[in-house]
Amino acid sequence: MRAFSYGRPDSVDAALRGVAGQPGTTTEAAVKFVAGGTNLLDLMKADVMRPERLLDISRLGLDQIEEIENGGLRLGALARNADTAYDARVQARYPMLSKAILAGASAQLRNMATNGGNLLQRTRCYYFYDTGTPCNKREPGTGCGALTGVNRIHAILGASDRCIAVHPSDMCVALAALDAVVRVSGPKGERTIPFADFHRLPGDTPHIDSNLAADELITAIDLPAEGFADHSTYLKVRDRASYAFALVSVAAALKLDGQTIRSARLALGGVAHKPWRDPAAEAGLAGKPASLETFREAARVLLRDARVQSHNAFKIGLAERAIVRALAEAAGVEHS
Ligand SMILES: Cc1cc2nc3c(=O)[nH]c(=O)nc-3n(C[C@H](O)[C@H](O)[C@H](O)COP(=O)(O)OP(=O)(O)OC[C@H]3O[C@@H](n4cnc5c(N)ncnc54)[C@H](O)[C@@H]3O)c2cc1C
Ligand code: SF4
């Protein structure tokens, strides 16, 4: 592990002063915040990330879960994943989110991991972690080891010829489906980022994961009032029943009039560089009967542009079946 300096700011202002003047996005920053440390410290030990300075933000007090004026909830950036998932209001009003968080990692990790850190955790692509192999995300311009290597866990949607990695978070898939909003503080004050605009597709700059600037701090995640508590679910398909990242996951949420779909939200994890939503697939569900046939058509639309690599063609069929099953579970429709 390389030497780095360490500081522990005691206020948001002090934390922002510590990163003031850093150019670019947070992924490239030399001074990094550390929250639970469950991802960043592993990456530093593996020599994948090499910050010069760490600012421990765990004592900034941003760990509350509060009611907000729009009828939703504000999840503090430093609230632990476990405290968020087991919060009675989250469980009652946003069960899909609670389920998604509890599908991730292990109990010990969820006790340590924070909401802000979960958003900024980095890909689990094997080559990203292996500093002996090329990786455009780790070392821009070196190539992509996964393109010609083992790419079973990699993307089928939104990838580029520079990077085919997927975003590993479960929580973020549910947040995408809920249309959450990320609240950040920076040198110009506060701003909000709609969840869909927070993470990026790889394009020509796969080393940049998000649109958070290097001199900004996530302070909270706002959930809108609508939590789809009556008809929603999170389904995660993985190699082991626990303690494994998603091969494919689905956050599915419906508003129903009887057995007719009024509106739908559908987000996929494990298939792209960011949680994947498709307005056409969601719009196509509106006004249709909640039936397996309708759900199969939504899956077909959502996966129409899927592109496979040498080892991950199975993900298309897996994603189709997972979408149908998740929508059926959300709607309460019998599914074998
Ligand atoms: C063995 C293992 C299995 C796992 N399995 C899963 C899984 O199945 N599903 C899943 O979703 N996750 C899984 N995880 C990932 C885990 O959820 C993340 O490591 C965790 O959420 C990161 O949160 P943290 O607070 O520890 O972040 P840290 O490691 O402290 O930070 C991560 C990044 O976020 C930045 N950061 C943190 N907070 C802020 C903030 N407020 N503002 C700006 N930047 C910030 C840091 O600078 C750093 O770049 C697993 C992790 C491990 C180690
Ligand atoms: S898929 Fe992305 S993260 Fe993985 S080796 Fe290629 S460039 Fe690196």
TrEMBL record:
Record keyword Glycoprotein present: no
| Alphabetic keyword roster | FAD, Flavoprotein
Q: Name one Pfam family in it.
A: CO_deh_flav_C
Where does the FAD-binding PCMH-type domain lie?
1-228
List the Gene3D superfamilies hit by this protein, alphabetically.
Answer: 3.30.465.10, CO dehydrogenase flavoprotein, C-terminal domain (3.30.390.50), Uridine Diphospho-n-acetylenolpyruvylglucosamine Reductase, domain 2 (3.30.43.10)
Q: Where are the transmembrane segments?
A: none
Keyword Flavoprotein appears in the UniProt entry: yes
Protein name in the entry: Xanthine dehydrogenase family protein subunit M
The source organism is: Azospirillum melinis
